Amino acid sequence: MSKPNIQLTVLFVGFNRWDSAQKLYEAVITKVMNKEAHDDTLNLVLTTFGETLKDESISDDSIRAFALTLPSESALSSSAAVIDPPAIRNARKEIKQAIARHYSSDLLALYNKLTSAIESDGEIFKVDGVSVGRRRLRNVYLGYLCSIASTGDEQRNAASIATKHFNSATGMTDKLAAFNILASMSGEGAEARDLAIKKFYEDAKGDALVLNKWFAVQGDAHLDDVLERVIKLTSHPDFTLKNPNRARALILSFTANAAAFHDESGNGYKWLGDILEKMDKINSKVAARTTASSLLGWKNYNEKRALLMKAQLERLKNMPDISNDLLEIVTKGLK
């Protein structure tokens, strides 16, 4: 068999492993969401996860990383008849913590093993397939380890692991992996979160692309007060609606932060309506695209959320001097 055919076989087997795992993860998360008995399914998940974790026949770290990763909240939403973002987040979090607690010793040992291998390269940042896969897998392990954060001691431990990962990162992939985790820490991890936010900003040194990531990560933080934080960030000296990339970084990261944006208070929708009203006068095309990605799916949510989302579309439609770009999108969304 030729080398290309061997590679295709490996990819095919890897995809099948990933696909099977995704279906199994989704099944148990769905049962948790629906408050159905799920012990048997969870046991199967734990067994499958453990086999993937320890299977020495998997030579590609990227394949192992993908097979160990839970479906995203957006992926879980796509298969739901009626989308309930907080329920999806809570159920996914419960399963992730169950897996992490069950395999905590193994995950830590494997994380440390990969860390030692990466540190042996010194300051060299490599972009070959092996190095990329190794970093990807280590970041998956990091995510599981830091998901164990229910008690004060656990929060301090998670913050310590993530902070060390953040400070020792030699590339943006590793740094962002840790920063995403730290940005969502609360309780005993709050101090580490605030220090990481400060350090990431300082390290950016005004680089526009890095600053966009700084805003985006905070917009996507899993914190109870994330909307208040986002509102405060819109007054930051480095934020402006006149910069479309900067505006999208913060606004779209928050609207993609489904459990927060779709809070049944409707505060997230109202804030977006306020922003879109201002943005339409600055950049109508960005305002239209933001509306399309954030509000047009209102029929996929429960009645309370749907009515609140629809109300913002109606508000925008009735806005004086609305642009043709935004009017077209809003009119389409209200049909």
Structure notes:
It is built from 18 helices and no strands. Mean pLDDT is 93; it is low at 1-10. Helix 8 packs antiparallel against helix 9 (172-182) and helix 15 packs antiparallel against helix 16 (284-294). It is globular and about 65 Å long. It has helices at residues 3-33, 39-54, 61-68, 73-78, 85-102, 104-119, 129-147, 152-168, 172-182, 190-204, 208-219, 226-233, 244-256, 258-261, 267-282, 284-294, 303-317, 324-334. The relative contact order is 0.06. By secondary structure, the chain is an all-alpha fold. Helix content is 74%, strand content 0%. The chain has a domain at 205-335: Alpha Horseshoe (Zincin-like fold).
Could you give a short account of the major beta sheet? none
Specify Rg, calculated over alpha carbons: 22 Å
Mean pLDDT level: 93
SS element count, helices: 18
Q: What would you give as the CATH superfamily of the domain at 205-335?
A: Peptidase M1, alanyl aminopeptidase, C-terminal domain
Beta percentage is under 5%
The helix-and-strand class reads mainly alpha
Could you list the spans in which at least 5 consecutive residues all have pLDDT below 50?
1-10
N-to-C span: 56 Å
CATH architecture of the domain at 205-335: Alpha Horseshoe
Portion of residues in helices? over 70%
Reading off the top of the CATH hierarchy, the class of the domain at 205-335 is best stated as: Mainly Alpha
How is the CATH topology of the domain at 205-335 named? Zincin-like fold
Q: Strand-and-helix sequence, N→C?
A: HHHHHHHHHHHHHHHHHH
> Number of DSSP strands?
0
The best one-word shape is: globular
